[in-house]
Amino acid sequence: MKILVPVKRVVDYNVKIRVDKETNAVDLNNIKMSINPFDEIAVEEAIRIKEAGQCDEIVVVSLGPEQSKETIRNALAMGADRGIHVKTDHSPEPLLVAKILEKVCEKEDYDLIILGKQSIDDDCNQTGQMLSALLNRSLGTYASKVEIENDTIIVTREIDGGLQTIKLKKPAVLTTDLRLNEPRYASLPNIMKAKQKTIDELDPSDLGIDMTPKVSTKKVEEPPKRVGGGKVESIQELVDKLKNVSGVI
Amino acid sequence: MSVLVLAEHNNQSLKEATKKALTAALKIFSPAHVVVIGNNCASAANDAATLEGVEKVLLVEDTTYENMLCEPTADLLFELMKSYDYLVSAATTNGKNILPRVAAKLDVSQISEIISVIDNKTFQRPIYAGNAIATVESSTEKNVITVRTTAFETAQVGSSVATIEKIDAGNNPGLSEFIEEKVSSSERPELTSAGIIVSGGRGMQSGDNFKMLESVADKLGAAVGASRAAVDAGFVPNEYQVGQTGKVVAPELYIAVGISGAIQHLAGMKDSKVIVAINKDDEAPIFEVADYGLVADLFDAVPELDKELEKIQK
Ligand SMILES: Cc1cc2nc3c(=O)[nH]c(=O)nc-3n(C[C@H](O)[C@H](O)[C@H](O)COP(=O)(O)OP(=O)(O)OC[C@H]3O[C@@H](n4cnc5c(N)ncnc54)[C@H](O)[C@@H]3O)c2cc1C
Ligand SMILES: Nc1ncnc2c1ncn2[C@@H]1O[C@H](COP(=O)(O)O)[C@@H](O)[C@H]1O
To answer: How many CB atoms lie within 10 A of CB B189?
Structure first.
């Protein structure tokens, strides 16, 4: 069995971003970038499936600028086998990412594709679902537990009301939720080893996909700032304020 | 122009989230149609038919749709979308699961979690955990949109009742099968529609200690929520999580207890009307968004709050 894991390079989750009023965009200068946390969970899951003897090869793929190779190396250092870098100046909208991933799957077949449930920059939460539609495969989003049987995959999903378990036919597309696993740190020897692993390059134009966006961003603004910082000295004062000033209880 | 709203329901009644998504849909075009897909779910369709701005309700009942499995539901919506320009749903887990699959089949992008409708092609949506707001414009005829429900009012019951049209079920591609659902039943209000929420974080130290918050919540008629750390530690189940990647809430009153206020948590609650924070670390970032911050040990403060509320009740 072969697993494909799409990984995105995003602003590190600890960074509080700033909107640049001049360029009307999020200021990405000198900002720490990392692998999207949900994608790290996806890589970890693939590695665990391989360690359980249920997978022969893990391929990671990233769409983005040259630096996306670092994100790929990161996943290779965790334990993925090889990488594919699809060169674009920035990560395109989810539909286009899904179309490119569909082409990647046409070149080589994967029994399982594990994506993150959402990129923490665009917060779209779409790509995995779209890819499953394009490939006409079964879909298990927001996975918190994955069990592979012969031709099926049992997935427990985090849903609004609690947990749902479904059975998917292979080949399948999964997206990860936070509690699927805790990703490992790459060890130094593995970081060294990752440098020897192959990363193939692909150009979207070779894949024959029209990359014209269907949605354009007109403006990016800071949200209205919340005025906080008020303090109370005691529970009595708190209850009094909630009752008599705010009128919320 | 025509708009179809996908209903969120439990096969019995329509969820509040759909009434909010409907309000957003009506800003794009009014009146709208609502589609109720499920099994033995006619009562949810009846609910939808009473709402102001709903012209017609499509009702599709079949065992295939009992649990809203995404593949058959998306296939059906794709067929229905031949007669509509817009597909709108609340950004619930069902909406987020199903709609992108329909969008890809229609060869359009989805616009996720809109917070405002500027015109029928232009929308605002939060990005970077709500630390930036993007105004986006669609260039396609057909559009697929999910709605952040905290940003829209609940649609009200109207003066007339819409017609309900039964639609035949589509094929089940048989790619997936439902096994089970573990849904905790609680007497408390649902997180996403509660007027007051009491949330606990890692500072609570155990699931048992959440009983203190439940007692406070019950006195206020509130829902109980949590930070990711509290869920990861197993204090409470996953559906309690508030935040960027959990539930987004905006109650009248949000009480954060033993929560530090990470970006990802703030993303889910900073639009609450009044925020209270109880934390022993006076530098915790949660205080920056709190209207009323109390620097205290929660194990003293929460029981005291409970007693004080009991006094008011009497
Ligand atoms: C991809 C990703 C997605 C995420 N999504 C979410 C999300 O949706 N929601 C979310 O909440 N988080 C999310 N997080 C996690 C987030 O970054 C924080 O780790 C988390 O919110 C911290 O939870 P906490 O505030 O409960 O814990 P901590 O940060 O550990 O804070 C505990 C607080 O309790 C206080 N405390 C301790 N003991 C006491 C006491 N006795 N009395 C009073 N105060 C006390 C401490 O001073 C501290 O401020 C996400 C992270 C990632 C990477
Ligand atoms: N540029 C990209 N390169 C690789 N994978 C991506 C890219 N963009 C999105 N993905 C994958 O799709 C998931 C969901 O992203 P999104 O739909 O943008 O929220 C991510 O967690 C990744 O697994």
So the answer is: 18
Task: Report pLDDT digits (tens) over A200-210.
Answer: 999 998 899 99
Q: What is the ipTM of this complex?
A: 0.97
Nearest CA to B36 out of B91, B81, B73 is that of: B73
Name the residue of A3, A10, A34, A36 to mutate for ligand 2: max ligand atoms within 8 A of Cβ. Answer: A36
Q: Which of A87, A127, A176 to mutate to test the pocket of ligand 2 (most atoms within 8 A of CB)?
A: A127
User: Residues B225, B91: contact at Cβ < 8 Å?
Assistant: no
Omega before B72 within 30 of 0, i.e. cis: no
Given a contact cutoff of 8 angstroms between Cβ atoms, the answer to whether A7 and A115 are in contact is: no
Local structure of A3: helix, strand or coil: strand
Identify the pLDDT of residue A59: 98
- By the 8 A CB rule, do B147 and B16 touch? no
Nearest beta carbon to residue A122 from set B127, B239, B287: B127
B107: left (phi over 0), alpha (psi -120 to 50) or beta: left
Q: How far apart are alpha carbons A50 and A81 in whole angstroms?
A: 11
Q: How far is Cα A167 from Cα B180, in angstroms, rounded to an integer?
A: 10
For residue A189, name the pLDDT band (cuts at 50, 70, 90). Answer: very high
Rounded to whole angstroms, what are the CA distances from A192 to A32, A47, A79? 22, 18, 12
pLDDT over 80 (residue B314): no
* Cβ-proximal residues to A188 (8 Å cutoff; 6+ apart), any chain: none
Residue B307 CB neighbours (<10 A):
12
For B200-235, what is each residue's pLDDT tens digit? 999 999 999 999 999 999 999 999 999 999 999 999
- Is the per-residue pLDDT at B81 higher than 80? yes
B71 touches chain A (CB under 8 A): yes
Q: Are B149 and B192 in contact (CB under 8 A)?
A: yes
Instruction: State the number of CA atoms in the 13 A half-sphere of A117 facing the CB.
Output: 19
| pLDDT score of B303 more than 90 | yes
